[in-house]
Write a structure and sequence with these properties.
It is a single chain. The chain is mainly beta. The protein folds into two domains: about 150 residues, no CATH class; about 300 residues, no CATH class. The chain is built from four helices and 33 strands. The strands form six sheets. The chain has a 19-stranded mixed β-sheet that branches.
Length: about 500
Amino acid sequence: MALPVALFGMIASMALAGAAVVATVDVQQGSHRDNSSKSAIAAADAGANVARLRLARYATVLATKPCLQVGASGTLEGTTASADGWCPEVAGTVGGASYVYRVTPAGTSCATGTSLCVVSSGTADGVTRRIEVTYDESPVLETIDEEETGEESTGKENEGSEEEEGSIGVEGLIGIDGIELSGNADVRVGIGTNGDVTGVGNASVCGDIRHGIGKTNTADQCNGYAETEGNKSLPPVSSFMPSDIATNNSNYRLVKCTKTKPTKEPTGCELDTYTGTRNSTKPWDATARAISLSGNSTLTLSGGDYWVCSLSLSGNSQLIAAAGSDVRLFFDTPENCGLSSGTAQIAMSGNNRISSTGYLPSEGKFSMPGFYLLGSTTMTTNVNITGNAGTVDEFIIYGPNTTINISGNGTYKGVIAGKRIVMVGNGKVEQDSGFQPPAEIRPITEKSVEEEGKETNGEVSSTTITIARYFEPQSYVECSGDVVPGLAPNANC
């Protein structure tokens, strides 16, 4: 009796132990698959983010070519759609997983009714997950007016009309995340934000106001101007900044001449004139890539593109862009410049002034210096602008990742655009009639060629040319199942 009982007891124990082992294996397999599934969706997200970054970086390429592909040299280049109507697939790896994404051609519509679709598939340890991100387009367009005779238009045919005087409708003060106005701030341009417009005190806006979807406006607005709701994207500085700016720039024009032997003079030194006493840091510190002006000094820039880290003006100093020159200062990221969080990359104080001798509105000339800041997405980047009554500054300050603080009593003409705008004091922002911002930074909505092509008084017609395409994300969904051969990449999404 003892032997059968012992055998049955052993069998029962082995059965229970086996069940526990099987359950443990199932749990381990499920846990492993869960980890792989999470890694796969993370890889798919990474692919979609890479696609978005490239769409912004190559916006000017997409104006003429609807797709991007990795060329023979390993760099992205414009191309046409594949036979199935989608752009060629682009693959990559992240961590121990991989992704493949495909994009609909720029200028077409997705099946979802939006302007562009990105489908990204991530794979990790044999597990694949797929997502779709849809976009709407906010392209940058340029309108060219031509007379029916074929001669170039003078741009004065509509002088006195709402179109000619309507520069106030151009967004001249833009803060992506929000705009704060207080004190006696006097804004005489159109303003736009994807956030709230906050007005406190006697601040007023004599121009159109655009606030974000679901956001509000509490600023006082002059009669006769519109208030609208809508979101727009600012083109990133990297999308139009020269790719070789770090090595091919006009910084050499700022360098102090050695005054030893002519053969040892730095090439092009002191081509940008300076009325103060030059030394190793003024007006140009080559090591820190910093331009600093103080006292009654004046620096005249007559080059093209500069690659700097900071600009400071104090006292009665002036920075002038010479007539006939297209002056642009591109500001490197604060991380690359070794700057701490919150450091102002542009600092203006006192009675300083920034102007252009080529800015002559009465002659239809609107050339002014441009300051373009890459900023940072991981640390605070600031621009601090102050000025006193009697000074008029003419410039474009553009930094989608930079907070711009405006105070004092100065008058500013041009465009000021940043991540957030904070304006206090008695300052004024305005634009002269006929002024238009540079095409590469205009966050405007597409207009049809037919609409722009209408004749005015039977004399002038217009042609609209897309010079860059920018896309704003609208929706994110996960697709069910894998890609089915013969069906669109976004099938079952």
